[in-house]
C-alpha cells in the first residue's frame, strides 16, 4: 500500500510531465508561453530530485547502521 506522500510524488511527476509537454508543444507550434511555466517545471523537478536524493541517503543509512 502506498502512503499519501508516495501518491503526492506520483502526482508531482505527472503534473511536471504535463506542464513540460504543454510548454514544448506551445514552443513547437510557435505560440507564446507564460514565463511562469518554466519556473513551475523546474520547481517540480527540483522537488523530485531532492526527494530522490533523500531516499538514497535514508537507504544508505539503513544499510550502514
Brief write-up:
The protein is mainly alpha-helical and 65 residues long. Helix content is 85%, strand content 0%. 0% of the residues are buried.
Explain this structure:
The chain has helices at residues 4-29, 36-64. Helices cover 85% and strands 0% of the residues. The protein has one domain (4-64). The mean pLDDT is 87. The chain is elongated and about 55 Å long. Helix 1 (4-29) runs antiparallel to helix 2 (36-64). It is mainly α and 65 residues long. Keywords: Membrane, Transmembrane, Transmembrane helix. The chain crosses the membrane at residues 12-31, 37-58.
How does the SSE layout of this entry go?
Elements: H1 4-29, H2 36-64
Keywords: Membrane, Transmembrane, Transmembrane helix
Transmembrane segments: 12-31, 37-58
Task: Name a few traits of the molecule.
single chain; 65 residues; mainly alpha; 2 helices; 0% strand; transmembrane helix; transmembrane
Share of residues in helices? over 70%
The outline comes out as elongated
Q: What structural class do you assign from the helix and strand content?
A: mainly alpha
Distance between the termini: 26 Å
Strand tally = 0
Listing every helix as H and every strand as E from the N terminus to the C terminus, the arrangement reads HH
Low-confidence stretches: none
CA-based gyration radius: 16 Å
Give the total of domains.
1
**Strand residues, percent:** under 5%
Number of alpha- plus pi-helical segments: 2
Largest sheet: none
* Mean pLDDT value: 87
Amino acid at each position: 500500500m502506498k502512503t499519501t506522500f508516495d501518491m503526492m510524488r506520483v502526482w508531482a511527476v505527472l503534473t511536471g510531465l504535463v506542464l513540460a509537454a504543454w510548454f514544448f508543444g506551445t514552443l513547437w507550434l510557435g505560440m507564446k508561453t507564460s514565463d511562469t511555466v518554466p519556473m513551475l517545471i523546474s520547481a517540480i523537478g527540483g522537488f523530485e530530485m531532492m526527494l530522490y536524493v533523500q531516499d538514497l541517503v535514508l537507504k544508505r543509512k539503513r544499510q550502514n547502521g
